[in-house]
Specification:
The structure is a single chain. The chain is 76% helix and 0% strand. It is mostly helical. It starts with a helix and ends with a helix.
Length: 364
């Protein structure tokens, strides 16, 4: 069990590294590396829900409502503390260094908490309203998604853990709900239309744990061959159907049609199998496994802070900031080297901050 939990920490850590590369490092647009990162990041984030469900430990003493309250205390309150502090301090930094106005500061505070799912109902979706403050803290959407997915998970987890047919029926209903919501992705983006699918992924993770499916199917003689096959299938489906756009809820590729959400859901497990085999292999690799496991165990710090530290580094050396208008720049060796140095700086600073937070928590 300890080895398996370390593998899951590595899975989260490697996932965060890929997210950091996606947000920080410049590479040729739609080149091989860019497509590799896109093909990874879209399924890694929903795969976190599978891991979350797998790590779920049922407690018969707690009701559904008590579990939801616990989830809110564990995720929502820390998220509010982090983001309020970041919005104040980071907003002040942007006012001083980047000339952001107080009006833009106040606007980005509102937008960060409302998220696109809500403010797009109030504002014309064609109007550009995001700014540097919002850009750098917008990764908080992932936490809101986890919090909103929690009620569905806790309502159904006991029912779906009993029998595979129960899990199949509930997941089918949740996938159908997301499929029906998906055409409204112009109004709702990133989180809400896929919340039922994220809940289904977490339910599958809990089922795998309760029935010990990892030992039954993962540790097989031919797991590396199966992992390669799964990786090839994942890439083929991604290239054919453009499943990244299902994840971002912005464009539904016509070739996927009404099956786009189902394909997205299935790919989380197809790609996820290859991914976990890779992480289990990394778990045998000396220092690397310890570094990734540490990052995975402190994933919230890296999620919240990686874009801010990379922006500060870019300001120090006078490099472009990887925000909307500079998401892709003409690729040069200089752009790559500077952004990669920013990535290394970010990992180091987030690690130092995580150590400080852990030491303070240990004293309390």
């Amino acid at each position: 069990m300890d080895s398996r939990n370390t593998t899951l920490d590595i899975a989260r850590g490697l996932g965060i590294i890929i997210v950091c590369i996606y947000h920080i490092v410049y590479r040729p647009e739609m080149g091989f590396i860019d497509m590799l990162i896109l093909g990874g990041i879209w399924f890694i984030l929903p795969f976190f829900f599978v891991i979350s469900g797998y790590l779920y430990k049922p407690d018969k003493l707690f009701s559904v409502s008590e579990n939801i309250i616990y989830r809110i205390k564990r995720l929502l309150i820390p998220a509010l503390k982090y983001t309020i502090t970041l919005l104040l301090l980071w907003g002040l930094y942007c006012v001083i260094v980047h000339g952001v106005t107080l009006k833009e500061w106040a606007r980005d505070i509102v937008l960060t908490y409302l998220r696109p799912e809500f403010y797009r109902l109030l504002i014309d979706q064609n109007v550009r309203i995001d700014g540097l403050i919002y850009d750098m803290i917008s990764t908080v959407w992932f936490l809101w998604t986890m919090i909103l997915a929690a009620p569905l998970f806790y309502i159904f987890v006991d029912f779906t853990n009993k029998r595979a047919i129960n899990l199949f029926l509930v997941c089918a209903v949740l996938i159908i709900i997301s499929t029906l919501l998906h055409p409204y992705n112009a109004k709702f983006s990133w989180s809400l239309t896929l919340i039922p699918v994220y809940s289904a992924a977490a339910l599958c993770g809990a089922f795998m744990n309760s029935h010990d499916l990892i030992n039954k199917f993962f540790y097989r003689k031919y797991k590396y061959i199966l992992a390669v096959i799964a990786a090839v299938i994942h890439v083929k489906i991604f290239n054919k159907f453009g499943s990244f756009w299902v994840f971002s809820n912005s464009i539904c590729n016509d070739s996927a049609g009404n099956f786009a959400v189902l394909i997205f859901f299935l790919q989380v497990f197809i790609g996820g199998y290859a991914y976990i085999v890779l992480c289990d292999l990394i778990n045998k690799c000396g220092v690397i496994n310890k570094i990734l496991a540490f990052i995975g165990a402190n994933s919230l710090v890296f999620v919240f802070m990686h874009r801010i530290f990379s922006t500060i580094f870019a300001d120090i050396i006078g490099a472009p900031i990887k925000s909307w208008e500079f998401w892709y720049v003409p690729f040069t060796a200089e752009a790559f080297i500077k952004s990669f140095c920013g990535f290394i700086f970010t990992i180091i600073m987030c690690s130092i901050l995580a150590c400080i937070i852990n030491k303070r928590a240990a004293k309390l």
